[in-house]
Amino acid sequence: MADEHGQQGRGSTSAGFRVLWVAIKREPWIFTVSTLGSVLFGALTVADAWVLGWSTDHVVLPAFETGEVGADMLLAVLGLFLGVAILRAVGIVARRLGAGVMQYRMQAHTRRAVTRQYLTLPMEWHQRHPTGQLLSNANSDVEAAWGPIAPLPMAVGTVAMMVIAIVQMLLADVVLALVGLTIFPVVIAVNVAYQRLAQGWMTRAQQLRAEVSEIAHESFDGAMVVKTLGREPEETERFGSRARELRDVNIKAGRIRAAFDPTLAALPNIGVLVVLAVGVSRVLSGATDAGAVVTVAYLLTIVSFPIRSIGWLLGEFPRSVVGYRRVRGVLDATGEMPYGDRTAAAPAGARGASLAVEGLAYSYEPGRRLLDGVDLAVAPGRTVAVVGATASGKSTLTMLLSRLVDPDAGRILLDGTDLRDLARGELAEAVASVPQTPFLFDDTVRGNVTLGADVTDDEVWAALRAAQADGFVAALAHGLDTRLGERGTSLSGGQRQRISLARALVRRPRLLVLDDATSAVDPEVEARILAALRDETGAGPTLVVVAYRKATIALADQVVHLQGGRIVDRGTHAELLRRSPSYAHLVNAYETEHDETHDDQGVNA
Amino acid sequence: MSTAMDSGEEIGAIRTLRRGVHFSPELKEGIGGTLALAVLASAGQVVVPIAVQQVLDRGVNGPGGPDVSFTVWAGVIAALAIVVTSFASYRMTTRLFTSAERGLATLRTKAFRHVHDLPLLTQNTERRGALVSRVTSDVDQVSQFLVFGGLLFVVSVGQVLVATVVMVVYSWQLALVVWLCFAPLFLSLRYFQRKLSDAYGTVRRQVGLMLSAVSEPVVGAAVVRSYAVEHRTQRRIDEAIDAHKAASTRAQGFTAFSFSLGGVSAGLANAGVLIVGIWLGQGRLWGGDITAGQVLAFAFLVTLFVGPVQMGTQILTDAQNAIAGWRRVIGILETPADLVDPGEAGAVLPRGPIDVRFEHVSFAYPGGPLVLRDVDLAISSGTRVAVVGETGSGKSTVAKLLTRLMDPSEGRVLLDGIDVRDIGSASLRRSVVLVPQEGFLFDDTLAANVRYGRLDATDDDIRASAEELGLGDWLGGLPRGIETQVGQRGESLSAGERQLVALLRAHLADPDLLVLDEATSAVDPALEMRIGRALERLMNGRTSVTIAHRLSTAENADEVVVVDRGQVVQRGPHAALVAEEGGVYAGLHSSWVAQQGR
After folding, report:
1. pLDDT confidence of residue B404
2. Does the pLDDT of residue A592 top 50, yes or no?
3. For this UniProt entry, which segments traverse the membrane (chain A) (predicted)?
4. What's the CA angle centered on A472, arms A469 and A475, to 5 degrees?
5. N vs C: which end of chain A shows fewer Cβ within 10 Å?
């Protein structure tokens, strides 16, 4: 907050120009075209007066004096006026379209750059930045950063027009020009005063708008809770009170505007009146002639109004500077996952990959190890179940296995190759990981399963069948072509998980990592899914599965028990049940509870 | 229902304004005074340039040298006009801001309230983002237009009228010429507005697509990486960004072109005035009764006409966006809420455990197949009932009908013998509470979230109720106890802990009928047991209906209701149902037992 306030005033003006300079350097040609358009427009506005003067002297006055005027002269009048008007129209189109194109192009450049960063920066960076912030960096911050481009050509054109007008005024009569010119600093001062006074309220309004939006987001997200507890009136009050606050701030900002707008409109008129008063006395004293007074008064009128476009430009600066700084934060972020050059080609005849984890350690923040000294060896085609309480490090392990993050110590070997030595994209050829919370793209079912991979519809259906998703997909209105995601059909949590699973299966991975990926699926359906992972001969991918259900765990060749980031025990399910009380407690909590309630005994979990 | 919402986007501009004023009556308040001030302000803005023009013509440039007394008098009149105009303009703007902002705050709040009544919200989670934009950016657009554009538009129209009157007084023939020159512009306005409206409609659609594409590398960061689809994702983003840029550029082109038309008309009018003026002076047309000075003065008047016409057309262009926004907000308000609250007239449920009856209840989503078919069911007060069935059997629909998140397509749901549709919403929500699968929490403290169940609960009430549910030690183990911040959607807590908060919330709400959509899949078994125990205590002394995903819940229930393909196929205590060989329940149970490895 304090920082933002400190940025207002002169600091934000120079910073604002620096942001604009970035855009001008990036799109010099469009900037030139739109500025020339604006200058053309300004020049022709002045030319309009010249055409009127010329027509008066050469056509209108002679016509009335002599009563004779040639058709050619009338055509010349028509031609001059239309010519100037059409050129001026060209100027307008060049200015406005140019400003628009420049603005949209800059937005597009920045959005591409920002999203490229999102795709390049490592997962750890994503984990440290809230989703909402990253989305607004790519959306509203980009818009705010390039907001001043829209009024820029007009402002530049105005400056050009002012220079021309000032020179003309000085040429007409120096004294009158100086009298008239006093208006300019006053107009600029009033504009600045307006920006200063209104800024605080506008910033506040911007904040309130964000808060109103957040409340609406949250309230609609929690609609089920709101509705089932009948809290609509309280929610409406929560939203309404903020909306009313926004209303009051807007009204206050409006009052300031209401006072400044007519002042700014009146200033040039007052200036003209002063020029006239001084002018009359100067004409009387013979210091100047009437024509000079008319010229200065006229120029003053046409220049005063567009001066405000400079005010509009300056008014966009604070938002622009803040937006640009936030975008820059993303663009300047460093860090990229290094890749090696090895391929992940399967040894001849192998369906599953061999996996070896050696001395693995990982901490999200210094001093807090999420995983520590984890060793694990899985033979090709075998299944290992990872079992542990909430926050024991299971999901971290799955993230390391699919190399979303790299370990602090130790290594992971896939068929003997360190994951870090694999070339970019190679890992995904061999390993597929299915997270607990599925993510669907704004795409068709087919697109969501293939993700652009070159697979036939038959293979997609086979994957859906294995994930037990073929039934509901076939029942969708457009089958594989049904759109999912934000603007698409909504699916239940279990259905989403199965689509996400089919996405992994269609790639026929040699190592499949399931992070409790079937949690929202009924147990019977889950059993069918697990069975479908192996073919008739029992061959299938190597499987690392994070699970709670005993049936799932019992399928594993090996179970590792994670506690506080360390493997505290490993063996078959039966062995662990026998020798590890804490393991038994964890997976048997159900039955223990069941028996104990029947025995009517209390327990301390 | 989505069609009802979208059809709101079809209503015309005039009807939009009328409906808009209907929903925001504040917009009408004091409109007469505001308009009077607008007329005064516009008149002043015409008077001042005319006075200046007169001073130049007769005062400074007078036939017999500068006329000082005329200059002084005209100057004083002009100065007075400036003062009056400025003051009128100030008052008008203030009034306009006040009524517009008041009206829009009302509109926003009404729309927000109405969204909570729409079935869309609880049935289609994917479209919530679109709903948010209707109470935020759509309303902001209208606000921008009303206070800036609307104001300038009124002033511009006023100035055009005043300028026309003055022109007619000078010379009706020349005034006619000016209007004829602008006729093509006025006539083509409709066409351009329609084009612009389409163009901006496309822009808005592209914005939506772009935002969704841009969110993929953020929300789906892990998936994009683990499947190495960075290139494909970037390509999709680039396409969306380019499509947005193209649509915006096209719309901007239309805007620029339609705006430039005004300038051409102005040039035509200037030339026309001079030429026709000369003809008039020469007596070739309508008798010559005009002087050179009058023609030149008229040429000056044309500029007073052209300025506001250009301003007005510009505003009409901007209005397309605002009208579209307004239309969308109104579309929400005009989408009928499917659940009508009888309000004050509604029945009040007596306190104490509730008995439940379904009478010939059928349900289908609009345009969908029947999810429940002719279900009859009676649950006596104080019993614990588990509803079981496969995914898609219709068991969750039972919960939604019981808690009136939806109304049955046919038949009745009775609570204590009263049709739920006849029970006042306040009483219904007081007595019937649903604990959904996802324990949604608001970004606040744990205490504030629990208090959502009973607004006047003290911290001690919350702690006491946690003790009653056996959650005291869990609460004590949290770093800041009940003052712990739960984060956005409660994501600082684990999924299981969120459920505990939801149960605590329900306990504090003290309902007479508790409906649980049980799903503790994302939780380790030990935490799940804790939840299970809290649940047991929560159900004490109430009627409870649990949509059971785990059959262990069914084992502990007084009665099990088995739903299969939209119908109740079995009911009775667990022991009896298990014994029914070949029954649906026996099948479910045996696969459950196999799953548990027991």
Report:
1. 87
2. no
3. 29-53, 73-94, 149-168, 174-194, 264-284, 290-315
4. 140
5. N
Distance CA(B143)–CA(B103), nearest Å, equals 9
Distance from CA of B15 to the nearest CA of A (A): 25
Q: Is residue A527 scored above 60 in pLDDT?
A: yes
* Residue B597 scores a pLDDT above 70: no
As for the ipTM of the complex, it is 0.81
- In three-state secondary structure terms, A542 is strand
- B29 touching A, CB under 8 A? no
Given a cut of 80, whether residue B165 has pLDDT beyond it is yes
Q: Please give the domain boundaries of chain A with CATH numbers for all domains.
A: 2-331 (1.20.1560.10), 355-435+505-599 (3.40.50.300)
CA distance A127 to A363: 13
C-alpha distance from residue A416 to each of A275, A420, A433, B336 (Å): 90, 12, 19, 63
pLDDT tens for B328-344 read: 888 888 888 777 778 78
Sheet holding A558-563, edge to edge: A431-434, A511-515, A542-546, A383-388, A558-563, A566-571
Judge: B68–A294 Cβ closer than 8 Å, yes or no.
no
Superfamily, domain B356-596: P-loop containing nucleotide triphosphate hydrolases (3.40.50.300)
Give the pLDDT of residue A384.
93
Residue of B nearest to A48 (CA): B267
CB pairs under 8 A between A and B: 471
Closest by Cβ to A223, choosing from B122, B135, B209 = B122
Higher pLDDT, B49 or B261: B261
**pLDDT reported for residue A11:** 60
CA distance A135 to chain B (A): 6
Closest Cα in chain A, distance from residue B394 (Å): 13
Q: Which pLDDT score, from 0 to 100, does residue A486 have?
A: 57
Kindly determine whether residue B115 and residue A522, on different chains, have CB atoms separated by under 8 Å.
no
Residue whose structure tokens are 């921008």: B144
Confidence of residue A1 (pLDDT cuts 50, 70, 90): very low
> Which chain A residues are within 8 Å of B267, Cβ to Cβ?
48, 81-86, 88
Question: What residues of chain B, 80 to 139, have a C-beta less than 8 Å from chain A?
Answer: 82, 85-87, 89-94, 96-98, 101-102, 104-105, 108-109, 112-113, 115-117, 121-129, 131-132, 135-136
CA distance A425 to A429: 7
Give the pLDDT band (50/70/90) at residue A485.
low
Per-residue confidence band for A597, with pLDDT thresholds at 50, 70 and 90? very low
Mutate to test the interface with A, among B84, B116, B397, B455 (most CBs of A within 10 A): B116
When scoring A256, A269, A395, A450 by the number of chain B Cβ atoms within 10 A, the one with the most, hence best to mutate, is A269
The Cα of A71 is separated from the nearest Cα of chain B by a number of Å equal to 10
- The tally of CA atoms less than 13 A away on the side-chain side of residue A39 is 11
Among residues A87, A91, A93, which one has the least CA distance to residue B254?
A93
Residues of chain B with CATH 3.40.50.300: 356-596
Which residues in chain A are contacts of B60 at CB distance < 8 A?
276, 279-280, 283, 290, 293-294
Please identify which residue in the block is written with the tokens 């002639």.
A289
What average pLDDT score do residues A205-219 get? Answer: 82
CATH topology of domain B1-170+323-338: ABC transporter transmembrane region fold (1.20.1560)
Maximum separation of any 2 CA atoms in chain B, in Å: 122
Q: What percent of chain A has pLDDT over 70?
A: 92
Q: Select, from the ranges A416-420, A582-586, B142-146, the one with the highest average predicted confidence (pLDDT).
A: A416-420
Confidence band, pLDDT 50/70/90 cuts, at residue B62: low
- What mean pLDDT, rounded, does chain A reach? 83
Mean of the per-residue pLDDT values for chain B? 82
Q: Which two tokens stand for residue A279?
A: 């002018």
